[in-house]
């Protein structure tokens, strides 16, 4: 946790409304940090439907293994999250830690262990001493409050400089429902997976399969399109819960993700996922600039995304942005190395609204002053048109600064 | 060109012997730098056999296009190299610049334009004014000296902090032959291609096809196994010339790369290529540590190389090395994200000779003091055993420091 808040942090924090059916409490278990909370427990008063997406790492953490197993049941009663230790690559001890936590949480919430979901974030490879917090889960389960989202977001931070919260409302068949979410970053963030940790809940009444359909679709352009440092975490977990409390207001239960009545809800959910994902990028370790990389005219959407990621993950592009240098030659390099089809002589590049290159060379009207003005902004849009097809994608990243190196040269110790 | 030499630079520079049949001269054309040479001309007294490997970028520079075209002829009479401008993404103007340079060089060397080879390194996207040096090629062709390798290496530097030279000898059918080479780095360096620029020559008498066979095989474990920043350049060019001067000593001409008489030569060439490639890594922008990443026990050699590259290109692994932090959890992360088969519970990791993790968790005998002692060295070996098969690969990289960010946040302007 940094003492300096990212300059890209949202200017205001939304008032997070209570969400019917979810109560939260936090504790300071001293897992790694001093003088802050590091354990969060969410309890659902009634069994909630649950959907999830996880890291595609071949070396996932013990909590990821645990959640994947329980997800098939589709029912959640409680979630326990700790920061300061990822419980990843901890072998048998890691499985013992998740087993102990699940057992204590199930006893505290009065449910089955298969209805518990777990997540851990922090250093990899250190055994997690779950006895540090297993004993407080009883109290947390009793003390949970509905209006505790901001505090919940604080408890799961690691190198984040601000808590990440978002809220949206929608209507399903005329009944108003709410969606609340929290997330944490801020390094080891790369797409093709979920994100570090994010927990989203709604009081809508939606069946698990439909919920999973919504989440799997929504994660593509949001969490799966952000990258801080190209490093995919062992612990990425995004869980979406539906408490169904809106059924009391007459909301008919939705069983199918393609149900037309979900249209407004889907839009609100996708908007919230994008908001949280961008908050993660805006708090990327050492970030001073936010960069939206859009690729158009590629052979396919998938090709466009790979080219956009090649640009967004290039250390030379990211350091140029940090230096406010409109070094579009490095964008050319990143397009060229992506492995996707590109024709140098059809390529055009924009920084903001300024076209800097066209037809395979510098734009005849190139203005250093105009591009420099773009680079001085906090938010920078880079666009590359490949000129070959209709494939399109946008990926979000941040700059690579000396602070990133400083933070990560001495994170563990 | 930096004023501070990399702390990883070789402790001594070899005396570069003359190589029969190759003469070199340099000039200060003021392409970008002040007070240093920036043009190199190599002239072969007799037509030399030539082999080459180039960047796999889809947006190659104009000189790369030019060389690829001439390589099919297999004959070289002169090479012109400039630093300070890559002549990449320069469209029609770029082709005009290579045409003018080739025409002037051919006139100066008294040969065909198809026997000229060109390379440019420096900023991308700026038109290269070849008239700045086309006029001096006459003089350079006349003034060339055989004992000028070190000066030649100096003229092609960009952000390099020291000139990179290497020399080896071998015997072919009892006749002594020499191999000399130069190279430059120091950013936009990633494998799966050649390197930035490297020029190697021998007085051996070897036919072009055999020469190409030797070069293509030799580049795999050397230049194609180094990475400074995962960014593949538009300009990577490695050319190998054979003047054939040793024929005068009775060396029989070799036509086939698999000829048994090439055994000693092949070993010497591979050794020289590895030496130059490692010099490039040791002068990686901002480098303070050299890292050899070895992966064993992968499903195949190709899988091992992809895992090794995933580790070597991870910003979190590289910043940990910079911070002298034996953060092996990040190695686990990089194995997990590589996309290759891995079984967390079979994975073992070493820093130097210290095994830090085994059987999917921290080594029971883990010693923080012992691993820290490894991390304090200039040269660090990281090994990951995947425990699945016999695939093996080694990749070389450097750490990611604040200096890398500083160098690249303001390289262009």
UniProtKB/TrEMBL annotation, chains A, B:
Name of the coding gene: argJ
Principal subcellular localisation of the protein: cytoplasm
UniProt similarity note: Belongs to the ArgJ family.
Annotated function: Catalyzes two activities which are involved in the cyclic version of arginine biosynthesis: the synthesis of N-acetylglutamate from glutamate and acetyl-CoA as the acetyl donor, and of ornithine by transacetylation between N(2)-acetylornithine and glutamate.
Active site: 195
Gene3D superfamilies cross-referenced by the UniProt entry: ArgJ beta chain, C-terminal domain, L-amino peptidase D-ALA esterase/amidase
Native source organism of the sequence: Rhizobium aquaticum
CDD domains: OAT
Molecular-function GO terms, alphabetical: L-glutamate N-acetyltransferase activity, acting on acetyl-L-ornithine as donor
Protein keywords: Acyltransferase, Amino-acid biosynthesis, Arginine biosynthesis, Autocatalytic cleavage, Cytoplasm, Multifunctional enzyme, Transferase
Positions of substrate binding: 158, 184, 195, 285, 408, 413
Residues flagged as site, Involved in the stabilization of negative charge on the oxyanion by the formation of the oxyanion hole: 121-122
Subunit structure: Heterotetramer of two alpha and two beta chains.
Superkingdom of this protein's organism: Bacteria
EC number: 2.3.1.35, 2.3.1.1
PANTHER family in the cross-refs: ARGININE BIOSYNTHESIS BIFUNCTIONAL PROTEIN ARGJ (PTHR23100), ARGININE BIOSYNTHESIS BIFUNCTIONAL PROTEIN ARGJ, MITOCHONDRIAL (PTHR23100:SF0)
Signal peptide stretch: none
Catalytic activity: L-glutamate + acetyl-CoA = N-acetyl-L-glutamate + CoA + H(+); N(2)-acetyl-L-ornithine + L-glutamate = N-acetyl-L-glutamate + L-ornithine
InterPro entries: Arg_biosynth_ArgJ, ArgJ-like_dom_sf, ArgJ_beta_C
Name this polypeptide is given: Arginine biosynthesis bifunctional protein ArgJ
Subcellular location: Cytoplasm
């Amino acid at each position: 946790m940094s003492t300096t808040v990212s300059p890209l942090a949202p200017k205001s924090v939304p008032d997070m409304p209570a969400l019917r059916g979810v109560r939260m409490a936090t504790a300071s278990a001293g897992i790694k940090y001093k003088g802050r909370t590091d354990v969060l427990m969410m309890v659902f008063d009634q069994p909630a439907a649950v959907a999830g997406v996880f890291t595609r790492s071949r070396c996932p953490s013990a909590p990821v293994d645990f959640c994947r197993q329980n997800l098939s049941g589709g029912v959640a009663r409680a979630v326990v999250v700790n920061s300061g230790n990822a419980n990843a690559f901890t072998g048998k001890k890691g499985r013992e830690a998740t087993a102990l936590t699940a057992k204590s949480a199930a006893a505290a919430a009065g449910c089955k262990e298969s209805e518990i979901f777990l997540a851990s974030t922090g250093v990899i490879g250190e055994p997690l001493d779950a006895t540090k917090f297993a004993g407080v889960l009883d109290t947390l389960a009793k003390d949970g409050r509905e209006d505790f989202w901001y505090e919940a977001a604080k408890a799961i931070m690691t190198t984040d400089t601000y808590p990440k919260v978002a809220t949206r409302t929608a209507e399903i068949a005329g009944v108003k429902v709410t969606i609340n979410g929290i997330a944490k970053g801020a390094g080891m963030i790369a797409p093709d997976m979920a994100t570090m940790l994010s927990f989203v809940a709604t009081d809508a009444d939606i069946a698990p399969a439909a919920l999973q359909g919504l989440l799997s679709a929504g994660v593509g352009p949001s969490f799966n399109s952000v990258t801080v440092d190209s490093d995919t975490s062992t612990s990425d977990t995004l869980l979406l819960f539906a408490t169904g409390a809106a059924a009391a207001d007459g909301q008919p239960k939705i069983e199918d993700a393609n149900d037309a009545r979900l249209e407004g809800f889907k839009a609100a959910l996708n908007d919230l996922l994008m908001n949280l994902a961008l908050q993660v990028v805006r708090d990327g370790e050492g970030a001073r600039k936010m960069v939206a990389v859009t690729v158009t005219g590629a052979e396919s959407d998938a090709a466009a995304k790979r080219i956009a990621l090649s640009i967004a993950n290039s250390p030379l592009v990211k350091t140029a942005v940090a230096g406010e240098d409109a070094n579009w030659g490095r964008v050319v390099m990143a397009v060229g190395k992506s492995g996707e089809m590109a024709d140098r002589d059809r390529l055009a590049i924009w920084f903001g609204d300024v076209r800097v290159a066209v037809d395979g060379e510098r734009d005849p009207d190139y203005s250093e002053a105009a591009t420099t003005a773009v680079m001085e902004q906090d938010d920078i849009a880079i666009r590359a048109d490949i000129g070959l097809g209709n494939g399109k994608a946008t990926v979000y990243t941040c700059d690579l600064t000396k602070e990133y190196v400083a933070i990560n040269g001495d994170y563990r110790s």
